[in-house]
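Retro notes (design track)

What went well: tokenization of the new backbones is finally stable.
What didn't: we kept losing track of which sequence belonged to which structure.
Fix going forward: every design gets posted as structure first, then sequence, in one message. First example under the new rule, 401 residues:
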């Protein structure tokens, strides 16, 4: 009897186990349930047409428009340098003097020689006049028969000699004056004046140094006008014109722009770099700009008053294959669009084709979605606020590039 009960219990347990095994197989073979698609949070903007400026951004070092190097024509020891670096000097002002003791002595000697020559000439003129009066007196006496012909001839000969000696003394006086003038010029050569007004940029000598003709003693720069030379790439070269205005900024002077003008343009390009040199002159009345500063130059080469623009952060892909995401008609799904992109103006890019006006464009979060992704966003800003997008949009544009 116990054996029968045991068999019944084993059979009952096996039936329950088989039933549970079958249910587990059914659960495994059943299809998994679909997970709900995630909704990506994005920022969007409604685009419109607006004015865009095509700009060329360049960099270059500032340099003075006018500058001179001060050298001495004569060799000598420096006796006086009244100006130092940073001092203001005016045109014609003496800025370097050489030791002039020996030259002054030469001037003194030449002055004395000139005075002696002048006195000798004066004395000789008196002798000539006396000889002339003697000739006239003898000629009057000859009419009375008192003087002889021989006496008159001797007097006339003496007059000719006196006249010749007068001319000689005049020549000696001219020579003395020339020597004196030469000495004075040499003395003036020891005083070096600046040919321009400006500031002392360099001083390479001190009192007591020996100045030679090849030595640069000082450098003077005029800061009323300054310039920069930039290198323009080949694709932008044809957009540059003489007389175009430019805006220049420097790191050392925050929140200030300086007006410049293109004054020179190289007629050839460097075959190695494929760039051309362009010179820009910048007004600098307050002398705020200094040579050696790093200048950032912006040239507006064209203006477009009715351009379709999107934030640069909305553009993805490489040049020639750019795309962006718009919002479909339902307002819940992203739609990928390939577009043709033009120039950049700040944080805006020109759209040539591939996009309709008034479209909603994803500006932030585009890297996290794909064509057909579900999206959610706050109310889109109005088109006129395109130029005032948050900094994060500009940052995303920089990262995309």
């Amino acid at each position: 009897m116990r054996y029968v009960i045991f068999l019944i219990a084993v059979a009952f347990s096996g039936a329950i186990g088989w039933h549970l095994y079958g249910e587990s197989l059914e659960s495994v073979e059943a299809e998994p349930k679909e997970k709900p698609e995630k909704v990506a949070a994005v920022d969007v903007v409604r685009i419109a047409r607006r004015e865009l400026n095509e700009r060329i951004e360049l960099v270059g070092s500032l340099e003075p428009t006018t500058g001179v190097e001060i050298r001495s024509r004569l060799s000598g020891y420096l006796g006086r340098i009244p100006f130092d670096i940073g001092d203001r000097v005016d045109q014609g002002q003496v800025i370097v003097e050489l030791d002039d003791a020996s030259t002054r002595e030469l001037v003194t000697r030449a002055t004395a020689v000139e005075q002696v020559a002048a006195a000798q000439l004066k004395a000789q003129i008196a002798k000539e006049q006396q000889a002339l009066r003697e000739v006239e007196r003898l000629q009057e006496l000859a009419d009375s028969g008192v003087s002889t012909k021989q006496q008159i001839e001797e007097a006339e000969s003496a007059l000719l000699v006196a006249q010749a000696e007068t001319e000689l003394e005049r020549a000696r006086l001219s020579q003395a004056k020339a020597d004196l003038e030469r000495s004075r010029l040499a003395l003036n050569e020891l005083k070096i004046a600046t040919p321009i007004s400006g500031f002392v940029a360099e001083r390479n000598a001190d009192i007591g140094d020996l100045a030679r003709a090849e030595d640069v003693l000082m450098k003077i720069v005029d800061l009323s006008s300054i310039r920069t030379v930039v290198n323009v790439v080949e694709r932008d070269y044809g957009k540059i014109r003489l007389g175009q205005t430019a805006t220049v900024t420097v790191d050392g002077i925050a929140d200030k722009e300086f007006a410049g003008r293109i004054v020179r343009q190289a007629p050839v390009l460097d075959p190695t770099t494929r760039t051309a040199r362009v010179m820009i002159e910048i007004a600098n009345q307050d002398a705020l700009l200094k040579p050696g500063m790093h200048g950032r130059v912006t040239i507006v080469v064209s203006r477009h008053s009715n351009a379709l623009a999107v934030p640069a952060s909305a553009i993805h892909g490489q040049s020639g294959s750019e795309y962006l995401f718009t919002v479909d008609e339902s307002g819940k799904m992203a739609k990928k669009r390939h577009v043709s992109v033009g120039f950049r103006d700040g944080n805006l890019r020109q759209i040539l084709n591939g996009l309709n006006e008034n479209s909603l464009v994803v500006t932030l979060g585009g890297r996290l979605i794909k064509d057909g992704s579900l999206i959610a966003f706050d109310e889109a800003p109005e088109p006129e606020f395109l130029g005032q997008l948050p900094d994060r949009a500009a940052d995303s544009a920089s990262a995309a590039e």
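Added context from the reviewer: The chain has a mean pLDDT of 82.
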